[in-house]
Design brief:
Shape: globular
Distance between the termini: 59 Å
CATH architecture of the largest domain: 3-Layer(aba) Sandwich
CATH class of the largest domain: Alpha Beta
Strand content: 15-25%
Oligomer: single chain
Low-confidence stretches: 1-24
Number of strands: 11
Strand order of the largest sheet: 7-6-8-5-9-11
Radius of gyration: 23 Å
Length: 342
């Protein structure tokens, strides 16, 4: 055989090998997983879910196929974690913040700890979960964790100090309610879709939540001010039942573990930059949104008003035998480390 023939044969063999490593378009996956989420696909957690599903298929060369069920089409927020335990879905993305009784230690991430962004808060939550290994997840394998950006006060008139905020009716939910109360506002509970009309009719003067809603709900048309003071985040955790996890092959587990390390940063950056960042730019350009800064003294005073919430939580969790004080201390250490990281 000539040298040219040998070379051509080698090239052909390499090409065949490379093609064999690629997923066949018509080939059925070896492992099929269902992934449920309670909110719409276009929300940032929904984007995370879709990204995760795409990545695991790509990184396993088509061995794993994930069918996503956003919008509560398979499990509601209330049923998410029980549904995973019962096998209704292989993976469920829920919010531990909505169920602090079930996730007591994780509820500490939703305290007013001064996280500057979703990226930082998400990475802190993941590191804390790895370090403290909360018992609340013992029947689950956690495959992704992240948070919203911290809630910010968004109003129809500028809030520059506690006097401006006193008695102001603002919509809030979860731990945002005691935050507003401590700061002197009058929190009002209502579903988010009702907020635009409530603002328009003067029932409320604004709300406190993450700022992508300024664009998503067109609230920047009425709420021209947002105060640059981060308050509390909402946590999310995607889990798989431990028994289902144990049945997966080691190579698939390795990919899932790799993705778990990446998801806090990926999701946080997507939320901060594309969700919130774009909404703020749109609001400033289209509606003249003003971001109001607090003076250093005012910020210090607001921090002091919120600190009793942290103290109360620590005492309550210590009564349950949980390492609450160390959890908060470590959360603040990680917050500062990650916020200052280049």
């Amino acid at each position: 055989m000539t040298r040219r023939a040998i070379l051509m044969q080698s090239v052909a063999a390499l090409a065949v090998g490379a093609l064999a490593a690629l997923p066949s378009p018509g080939r059925a996956a070896d492992i099929n997983l269902t992934y449920a989420f309670f909110a719409p696909a276009q929300t940032f957690p929904g984007r995370q879910m879709a990204h995760w599903a795409e990545e695991i298929k790509k990184r396993t060369n088509g061995k794993v196929e994930v069918r996503t069920f956003p919008g509560g089409s398979l499990l509601s927020a209330r049923d998410m974690y029980d549904g995973v335990s019962k096998g209704v879905a292989d993976i469920g993305l829920g919010s531990p913040s909505y169920d602090p009784g079930r996730f007591p230690l994780t509820s500490g991430i939703s305290l007013p700890l001064g996280f500057p962004s979703s990226t930082v808060a998400s990475q802190v939550l993941w590191e804390l979960t790895k370090e403290f290994k909360p018992k609340e997840y013992e029947s689950f394998k956690v495959i992704a964790m992240f948070t919203t950006e911290p809630g910010h006060i968004q109003t129809n008139k500028a809030v520059r100090n506690a006097g401006d905020l006193a008695g102001m009716k603002l919509r809030a939910s979860g731990t945002g309610v005691p935050v507003l109360s401590a700061l002197g506002a009058a929190p009002v509970g209502m579903p988010m879709p009702e907020v635009p009309q409530a603002v328009q009719t003067g029932v409320i003067a604004g709300h406190m939540t993450s700022r992508e809603v300024l664009k998503d709900f067109k609230l920047a048309e009425m709420l021209k001010f947002t105060t640059d003071y981060p308050t509390v985040v909402t946590s999310f955790a995607a889990v798989m039942d431990r028994k289902r996890w144990d049945k997966l092959p080691d190579d698939v587990k390795k990919v899932i573990d790799q993705l778990a390390e990446e998801m806090p940063g990926w999701t946080g950056r997507y939320h901060d930059q594309q969700n919130v960042g774009e909404a703020l730019e749109w609001s400033k350009k289209q509606h003249g949104l003003e971001i109001v800064s607090l003076s250093a003294d005012e910020r210090k005073a607001w921090n002091a008003k919120l600190e009793p919430m942290v103290t109360q939580w620590v005492e309550e969790m210590k009564g349950k035998g949980l390492p609450a004080e160390k959890y908060v201390q470590r959360a603040r250490e990680l917050r500062d480390q990650l916020a200052n990281k280049k």
